[in-house]
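Hey, does this match?
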Amino acid sequence: MKKLRILIAIVLILLLAGSAYFVSQSLYVKGREGIIPMLRKELDLVGEGSAVFSCIGEYNRDREVLLWFTIQKEDTVFYRAVGCRMLKNGGLRIKNIYDPMAYAPDIVHVVWMAEDVFLVNDPECRGVVSRNADGNVTKQIDFAPSQFPVILSLSQLGIDGMMGSATIDFVDSEGNPI
């Protein structure tokens, strides 16, 4: 009986230590501003006072959120997307930091939760057009000049999963692709 108690105590201590380790390795922050030090570290900008970080938008799916950040350093703008889980206490658990792929200057995207999510931060862009294999417009979304940044997904354009033969174009005020 004494050996059983010792074994139970050892198992409980190991479970407690494992839980403490897991919690200490998880990335929890109280709000969006708590993400900025992590981005500074990832981009090797710790102590760099000239870099300005801003959270410019979010894309939500249930309790998951993709936060979009700009990093302005001198005349260059970098974009990062941070995938998080919203917690009941108002905090965020950071799951991943994405370096987005550029579609065009100030139009970037990431694949997040098996979905293409675009950030459009180009004031010259006036909309996005999706076309089928025959080149016919299947959907068009127009942007107002005061609307930027715009965050949208392929599913909002009526495109689910792999695009196949469908195409999308981000267009200027005259309808020309950017």
The two ends are 76 Å apart (CA to CA). The longest helix spans residues 2-25. The chain is about 15% helix and 45% strand.
